[in-house]
Amino acid sequence: MSEIEWPWQYSFPPFFTIQPHAETKARQLKAWHTLVLNYFKANNLSSLDIREAHQSSLFNNSSIDRKLPPEGILLVLEDLQKSGNATPLDKTRNRWLVYWHTLEEWAAIIYSWAQANGFLNTVCTFFELVSGDDTNEQEFHGLDEEVLLRAIQVLETQKKAEVIPIDDSHGVKFF
Amino acid sequence: MDRFEYSDPRLAHGEEFLMRENGVKLYDGDSKTTFEDGELVVSNARILWGRPGDIPRGQMCVCLPLFYVVLVEEEQRTFSFSSSRKFVLHLSESRQGKPQGPVTWSQHNFIKISFKEGLHNDFLGLIQNALMTRAWERLSVAPPSASSSSQNVADRKWRSGIVGIERKIEEKHKATDESISLAFQDLSRLMNMAKDMVAISRSISTKIRDKQGDITEDETVRFKSYLLSLGIDDPVTRGAFSNQTEYFKSLAKQLAQMLEEPIKEVGGMMSMADVYCRVNRARGLELLSPEDLMSACRLMSTLQLGLCLRTFDSGATVLQLSDHNDRIIIENTAVALEESGSLSATELAKILGISVLLAKERLLTTEKQGRACRDESLEGIRFYSNLFLTKEE
Amino acid sequence: MGALFGKQKPKSRVTDHDRAILQLKQQRDKLKVYQKRIQGTLEKDTELARKLLRDGKKDRARLILRKKKYQEQLLSTTDNQLENLEKLTQDLEFAGIEAQVINGLKVGSEALKKANAVFSIDEIERIMDETREGVEKQQEIDEMLSGVLSDQDEEDVLAELDDIIKEQKKETEPSPAVPDEEMDELPDEEMEELPDVPSEEPQESTAAKKERNKQPKEKVAIAAS
């Protein structure tokens, strides 16, 4: 777990209490929004379970002995959902998928890479995209396959790709 | 003779005709009665005597239910020159609630029947038979005598089981109703008496008021407190609207005068609990009820007495100086937060020398304005300067 | 197209050709994963061989090295084959190369199976084992490998083995042979007492090293014969 540079709010105890004042709350959530995405990007994480969130230092700052309560975490996630950076994985809304680029952004990044490297009208396995040697320099290298799937699905709706299920994974054809 | 009843000669269902004789005379004990020369009809349940022709016509006659008969014997004639035979019928106690008869009371426990025109039937035998068969027990003429009661009661129960239970319940209800109305009778009596007392006290209070001028309110107050201690609700303020507001108005004036200094001392605001305690401590004897205090305080702002009632979002109610300015308070609180970084309500209370409740209200008001933010933890709530809004990103 | 029928699923633009290539790619992906794993264990295997040699189990050490060689070979062969196939499929008509594709797939999966069979670390540990099980396992693997490696491969294996032995000798030799000198190396003044050493004080440490270097070489000459 690489430690990112924590923002000043992280050491400010009120940061871990959801503020009742509307404007204050908006600022607070904005700070959480940025922090969560940075943290996830730096540690290459893609999913989160609210019930186990306190195990990570993201929502639990032991040095000031403060934790963001589960209701607060849910609020932060819903805020991320609104901006297109998170989506719940089940009805109970305990498990979430979080991506520092929105799905549309990921879709665009991947497609432009495919275009630039002559992968249009060819097929690739998901494995190739995220773990292949060709994509080492790419932002999406190491991306969670769940997120990748959803990003490709965005491309599907744009008629720029098609998902091909194979065994327990997927392939994609770019057009 | 008092065992006889007026009766309908028509035979009941199941009642059998046994014999008839004419020229029959009835004796009450040994004494003659007016019942002579009549027709006697005997059935297996009753002995009927009526004026000649009455019985056949179905008209009212007198009857002796056979269950009264304990013993029948013929009287021994001393002289055999008369052809009339006399029989003695010994009778049991007259039963309660027996239908009306020709004679209400008789000292004798036996009657005699004489057959002037001769006896053509075996009267004795027939009667004795009838007594043995006790046919009346199977008919509706049965008496509630102890010996036969068990069988009767059983019959009755068997016949009217559910109906009997229902009747019992009904009776119970009736009994309860009665007792309740009895009880209420007492209450209404009590209320009537109270009405009198109320009238008296009213007249007294009007008299007092008429007698004196301004000091009336105080005296009235005292009087009211006496009545209160008696347990009678304040009759003076009830109904008379003008009286009520006048009372509260002057009370408000009094309180405002009394409280202005103390409220200033504690920073311009005092919780109602504090006000209540101080006021009653000062008054000593003529204590104010919380409701009266509230009513008086509510009038204060309209009367422009320098104080007014204020309720916070959290529900806390305080009395504060009219010229109390929230903005200044918020400013002061914000500065205090900046100086000490963070404060809890208790800490602020200590610093300012005010109650914890008021300190908390100050912090909450400051937070509402966006000048403070909160930190909730197991130790309680602390407030910080609102760096979210003030710090440059 | 979709507009006409609303809910109807749009026709797939993925051909069977595409699917075949995708399958090949998937196999390549799996092979790549295995390659990476094997690379990770190369160091371990070499270390294992060293340990076995230290324990005097030369045969077993050789076995490990042979196994290693075999795996590498297997994977690189298969990889090449698949790459070729991929190129083929992209150039030619699908129908014509269907048979080749199926074959290619077969080869690939067989290679994977074989690699898997020899790959298990538990098995390797059992080779270390002195018990009968260990011996049996060794024989089993021996049989599997016999005839698979070329002569050149076998030579390479032996060469590697020798290298390791040399390394070990360098480390192990000084301690039992020259205990006195080792002890005397510590106090500086006493260096002059050593027989063969040109006693120049500032060059003590290097001198000591030279001495050490001289002796093992002689001994290696003896061992080789």
TrEMBL record, chain A:
One of its GO terms (cellular component) is ESCRT II complex. Pfam families: ESCRT-II. GO terms for molecular function: protein homodimerization activity; structural molecule activity. It is found in: Cytoplasm. GO terms for biological process: macroautophagy; protein transport to vacuole involved in ubiquitin-dependent protein catabolic process via the multivesicular body sorting pathway. It comes from the Eukaryota. Gene3D superfamilies: Winged helix' DNA-binding domain. Chain C. Domain 1 (1.10.10.570), Winged helix-like DNA-binding domain superfamily/Winged helix DNA-binding domain (1.10.10.10). InterPro entries: ESCRT-II_cplx_Vps25-sub, ESCRT-II_cplx_Vps25-sub_N, WH-like_DNA-bd_sf, WH_DNA-bd_sf. Keywords: Cytoplasm, Protein transport, Transport. Belongs to the VPS25 family. This is Vacuolar protein-sorting-associated protein 25. The gene is LOC113204722.
TrEMBL record, chain B:
Pfam families: EAP30, Vps36_ESCRT-II. The gene is LOC113207307. Belongs to the VPS36 family. Residues 1-143 form the GLUE N-terminal domain. InterPro entries: GLUE_dom (IPR021648), PH-like_dom_sf (IPR011993), Snf8/Vps36 (IPR040608), Vps36 (IPR037855), WH-like_DNA-bd_sf (IPR036388), WH_DNA-bd_sf (IPR036390). Component of the endosomal sorting complex required for transport II (ESCRT-II). This is Vacuolar protein-sorting-associated protein 36. The keyword Transport applies. It comes from Frankliniella occidentalis (Western flower thrips). It comes from the Eukaryota. GO terms for molecular function: phosphatidylinositol-3-phosphate binding; ubiquitin binding. One of its GO terms (biological process) is protein transport to vacuole involved in ubiquitin-dependent protein catabolic process via the multivesicular body sorting pathway. One of its GO terms (cellular component) is late endosome membrane. Component of the ESCRT-II complex (endosomal sorting complex required for transport II), which is required for multivesicular body (MVB) formation and sorting of endosomal cargo proteins into MVBs.
UniProtKB/TrEMBL annotation, chain C:
It comes from the Eukaryota. Keywords: Coiled coil, Endosome, Membrane, Protein transport, Transport. Residues 163-173, 207-225 have a biased composition (Basic and acidic residues). Residues 179-203 have a biased composition (Acidic residues). Gene3D superfamilies: ESAT-6-like (1.10.287.1060). Residues 160-225 are annotated as: Disordered. It holds the Pfam family Snf7. Its main location: membrane. Transmembrane segments: none annotated. InterPro entries: Snf7_fam. This is Charged multivesicular body protein 6. It comes from Frankliniella occidentalis (Western flower thrips). The gene is LOC113203247.
